[in-house]
Design a protein that fits this description.
The chain is about 25% helix and about 25% strand. It is an alpha/beta fold.
């Protein structure tokens, strides 16, 4: 984690950090109070049958529409990646997935998808460790992705009943 925080500092990306108990899922997050400004983010690492990979960052408290995400990515039907794929492409373990792990994808195999509601907001993400959260401007997160050769797609990723 120290390395990623130093990277953010080197890129002049301001952030606030809060330590907490390990969060592996949305359920784990229910009794953790994060006192940071921003939108709580969950991240889904997905792939299609042709091994096209995507990292979806969205509001923690909403349900993803995988069909809609697949269409926006231009992928076929999506499934969730396994821990071996997480390690291979993003150098991360389950529970610690973050858009910051895109730094490990030097071949740019993973497409990024961000919730359009992040624009102009701060987001709360893991700093590659699920026992801490950081808050930073979404625009700075996009700048981070660009630094590592990644572009992103903005859109609505949610099930219709939650709009």
């Amino acid at each position: 984690m120290e390395e990623i925080l130093q990277t953010l500092t080197d890129l002049n990306i301001p952030f606030e950090i809060q330590e907490h108990k390990a969060i592996f899922s949305e359920k784990d997050a229910e009794d953790v109070v994060i006192n940071l400004p921003g939108i709580d983010v969950k991240n889904l690492f997905v792939k299609d049958k042709n091994n096209n990979y995507g990292l979806v960052s969205m509001n923690l408290h909403k349900r993803a529409d995988l069909k809609k995400i697949a269409a926006l990515f231009g992928y076929s039907r999506l499934s969730f990646c396994n821990p071996d794929e997480l390690k291979k492409y993003l150098d991360i373990t389950p529970g610690s997935v973050s858009p910051l792990c895109i730094k490990a994808d030097s071949e740019c195999r993973v497409k990024l998808f961000f919730d359009e509601n992040f624009t102009g907001q701060k987001v709360i993400i893991h700093p590659l460790r699920n026992t801490a959260s950081i808050s930073l401007e979404f625009s700075d997160l996009c700048r981070f992705a660009e630094k590592y050769g990644h572009s992103w797609i903005l859109g609505n990723v949610y099930k219709e009943e939650e709009n």
